[in-house]
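ESCALATION

Customer reports they have been waiting on this structure for their group meeting. Please prioritize. Original submission:
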Amino acid sequence: MVFLGVTALLLTVCVIFLLVTVSQARRKNKARLPPGPTPLPILGNILQLNGKEVFRSFIKFAEKYGPVYTIYMGTERIVVLSGYEAVKTALNDNGDVFSGRGHMPLIEKISAGGHGVVGSNGERWKQLRRFSLMTLRNFGMGKKSIEERIQEEAHFLTEEFRKTNGRPVDPTYYFSKAVSNVISSVVFGNRFEYEDKDFLRLLNLLNETFRGFSSVWAQMYNVYPKFMERLPGPHKAFFKAIDGIQEFIAEKVKLHQESLDPNSPRDFIDCFLVKMEQEKSIPDTEFHMTAIVNTTFDMFTAGTETVSTTLRYGLMILLKHPDVEERIHREIDQIIGRNRAPCIEDRSRMPYTDAVVHEIQRFIDLIPLGIPHKVTQDIEIKDYVIPKDTTIYPLLSSVLQDPKLYKYPYDFNPGHFLDKEGKFCRNDAFMPFSSGKRICVGEGLARMELFLFLTTILQNFTLRSPVDTEKLDLTPEISGFGNCPRPYQLCFITH
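Update from on-call: job pushed to the front of the queue and completed.
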């Protein structure tokens, strides 16, 4: 009995010791979390954020708490990374640890719980990303074949602009049609006619989706998803737009299934269907119907809205800076002339134009907050401990506007990418496509499109504003997940 009593006492002491040790470790880790503003119960720090320009609120926090700090969105703890050094240390130097997709209810809802490339994690993400990259490369990404596809679409676009006869037009859907047709040829196997009603409806849904993602309603959904599911509001129309795009894709998949030749895949969807057939006997395969719809959705939406918005914003900037446009015209005349289409090889011989394309991307800061990451294990950074599964916000805006790497961070200045001799120079803080393991799958395609579309347009036209350029406002109309330019019109004047 005495022995049993002693044993019980020793076990009790051990349990108490373990509990105290774990509690102390938790307190120690909490104490070593990056600093940040004091959160309110349930609300966290959301009342301290400017809903119209969330990223600016985050940058102000960085000025007070440093480049790595902690905030609470509702009850969820988030670590924010601000500035080039902090983001580089995380995404590049510790890429594997920061490769998880962070908690973002909107993405989880859209991706049916984390399917597709954007919303997935772990082995699923690795398999889908590897497959998507390989397939995009097989269909020409970074090769001559996709360059010719872009050149062809740029020709169609200039012909559409020529039909305007110099009248003022809103360029929004012109760019959406052209850019979407490039990625459509890869994922669907065909381009669409510009007046195709189904195509126009699809582009309208895409535009609505991108704007909806940047709205205050979307931000509130990410903080209180269960509550917002029950609440009526504009976010319901946003979800309907997403459903419309996914239904369009599902119908395309069905048509592909009916005409599939496994020995001769025509596009991304065909390749995915072949992979599904190859793995149909694997119980936990990542290649199934939910995955094909969501992965195609990721490819198509990212490949359309980001590039078309950048071009639309870019031409607005050139209207405000006619001297920049004129210098591009001179470089085009010198290197390309008027008798052949621009090609990607021209980029290395056109440092000023290349610098302008980079500066447009830097200045518009298209995705200021980046897409949330997640740490896959505990990690120590700058003497702080970030616990496993913590959501990370890498502020791309703070990198693209880092005053340590850009002399005029808030001004449009192509000189940020030119040396004293006028040669193009890279800048490590150029991260519009993010960086590290989660860098945009279509970066190479997007960069090619931006250069070829812009040079083809300026080879054929001079840009004119129907209103005084002083009235053009370059600040975003909406600034949330993405920066959306204000509506404007311009005239394409034939040379």
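Sent to customer with the following note: The chain has 18 helices and eleven strands.
Escalation resolved.
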